[in-house]
């Protein structure tokens, strides 16, 4: 009689594999590309408000009635809010970014925008407002003018945006 045949015991050895982590290539979106010095779309760099650049003369469209709440109380950092014709909108005085196309775009500092002349009054850029074009017109309670215009971004694009211009105080 033959002895039963014994198969060697099977012990599973743990396989060593790299942990599953999703890696995504990162691009530095914060690095600003400087536009060419000869670029016509680049906003002029201004050191401060005491430059000799002539303000743009504009003619406001629509009626000159008060359509928005006060803007002067908006904080210098972060977002504030305003009410335009019964609708709430965000107001940004610095670091304003929007989703445009396939990425984020950061608007240039307000101090790089030129002042505007309405009649004999001079208005300075005060804040970006998230209002659409048809709501971006008229005056605010504190005398600021809402103006729809094309604004340069740090990435080099030009995007339509509502800008509040206020008299110097």
Write the layout of secondary structure elements.
Layout: E1 56-57, E2 66-68, E3 79-84, E4 87-92, E5 97-100, E6 103-106, E7 116-118, E8 121-129, E9 139-140, E10 145-152, E11 158-167
Parallel strand pairs: 1-7, 2-9
Antiparallel strand pairs: 3-4, 4-8, 5-6, 7-8, 8-11, 10-11
Description:
The chain is 0% helix and 34% strand. The protein has 169 residues and is an all-beta fold. The strands form three sheets. Strands 1, 3, 4, 7, 8, 10 and 11 form a seven-stranded mixed beta sheet that branches. The protein is rod-shaped. The model is unreliable at 24-51 (pLDDT under 50).
- The geometry reads as rod-shaped
Distance between the termini: 112 Å
Low-confidence regions: 24-51
Question: What Rg is obtained from the alpha carbons, in whole angstroms?
Answer: 28 Å
Which keywords apply here?
seven-stranded mixed sheet; 169 residues; 0% helix; two-stranded parallel sheet; mainly beta
What would you say about this model in short?
With 169 residues, the chain is mainly beta. The protein has strands at residues 56-57, 66-68, 79-84, 87-92, 97-100, 103-106, 116-118, 121-129, 139-140, 145-152, 158-167.
